[in-house]
Write a structure and sequence with these properties.
Elements (H helix, E strand, L loop, with lengths): L10 H24 L5 H22 L7 H25 L5 H8 L2 H11 L11 H18 L11 H20 L9 H22 L2 H4 L7 H28 L2 H4 L2 H17 L5 H20 L23 H10 L1 H4 L13
Helix pairs in contact: 1-4, 1-10, 1-12, 2-3, 2-8, 2-10, 3-7, 3-8, 4-12, 5-6, 5-7, 6-13, 10-14, 12-13
Length: 352
């Protein structure tokens, strides 16, 4: 029997939504704080390697079968697309673009998914979308153009190079999410995600070393804020909020869970303005309304297909893509103990 507050909504569901909205919405600001005194690629690589190693060890201890060479190859491809192209782009771009604006551009992932499934490579193509979805795509593209247009347009322009990296990173994330449906990943989504984190994290470390970030790494000079932000990203962003997300996939309608896609950028914009002094110009607000309205239109008109990445996280929020509903049941069983005690016991029986 579930405990319910006076309004009749299970308190565990309320807590899980709060975790998904607030924790994932805050990860963009945490990334900004982390890279203030930590090299971006090395920071991201350490985050994903640590999370991937813990999750991989946990899956193996629970009896999940050792993956084969083909599965490692598939996981490496997806991990590089998601974590190097996607999250790596976010981490690098936040050196030049405010955290709230970063979240806003990254929220365009559903738009890129629609375009890839319509006009992309044959391996991921699914056909022409509905007219309402196409209107949403057009609105999203218009919002990005407004956001990165001439700097004197309503004030508050965005660095073009940073914005370009974010757009390419979002495309990489969308393509990796879509391609993951076709590759021979492990049947255990938890193990597959751990492998993706290990591959992506190792690649990020190599990129950081090649770029000379090791010479700029000063552990003695790393601020407490940066170190705590890295810990927050690894534990809260990658594990706690994820457990709450998968719990919600089982407990409520997918369409309601998908609301994180347009709530997270709002949270990121507000947190960036409140704690980092980021500007909320008229231009930003108009672009935000245009982009998020388009995302709402797309997610409300286009029911997620089996394995569709529309229910997956945007590139800045997670160590790797969370499961689509088709895979959620397997993952819920794997993480039911780890999810207990998370967000006020939000997942008593289920987990990722």
């Amino acid at each position: 029997m579930r405990l319910r507050p006076e309004g009749g909504i299970p308190w565990k569901i309320v807590a899980a939504f709060a975790a998904v909205y607030l924790i994932w919405g805050s990860t963009y600001l945490a990334i900004r704080f982390a890279i203030e005194t930590l090299p971006p690629m090395l920071m991201a690589g350490v985050r994903f390697l640590a999370a991937g190693a813990v999750l991989y060890g946990w899956m193996r201890l629970r009896g999940v079968e050792r993956p084969g060479r083909a599965q490692w190859r598939a996981a490496a491809i997806v991990g590089v697309l998601l974590l190097v192209g996607g999250n790596g782009g976010v981490v690098w771009a936040e050196q030049r673009v405010a955290s709230g604006l970063t979240a806003l551009i990254v929220s365009m992932v559903p738009v890129w998914v629609v375009l890839l499934e319509w006009l992309g490579p044959r391996s991921v193509r699914l056909g022409r979308p509905r007219r309402a979805v196409l209107i949403g795509v057009g609105g999203g593209l218009l919002g990005v153009v407004l956001l990165v247009g001439p700097g004197d347009l309503l004030g508050g322009g965005v660095d073009p190079l940073g914005a370009g990296v974010l757009v390419m990173g979002s495309l990489s994330w969308a393509f990796g999410s879509t391609l993951s449906r076709k590759l021979p990943l492990p049947s255990s989504a938890g193990l597959g995600t751990a492998m993706e984190m290990l591959a992506g994290g190792a690649t990020l470390l190599v990129i950081g070393l090649v770029a000379g970030e090791a010479w700029r790494l000063d552990l003695a000079g790393a601020s407490t804020k940066s170190v705590l932000s890295l810990v927050y990203l690894s534990i809260f962003g990658s594990l706690i909020a994820l457990s709450a997300y998968v719990y919600l996939l089982r407990e409520v309608a997918v369409s309601k869970v998908a609301t994180y896609a347009y709530v997270n950028p709002i949270v990121a914009l507000l947190l960036g303005a409140a704690f980092a002094g980021e500007e909320l110009s008229p231009r930003t607000m108009i672009a935000a309304a245009t982009i998020l309205g388009s995302v709402v239109l797309i997610t409300s008109q286009r029911a997620p297909r089996a394995g569709s990445p529309l229910c997956e996280l945007p590139a800045g929020d997670l160590a790797a893509a969370p499961p689509a509903p088709r895979r959620a049941a397997r993952i819920l069983n794997l993480l039911r103990r780890g999810a207990r005690g998370v967000v006020g016991g939000a997942a008593r029986r289920e987990g990722w």
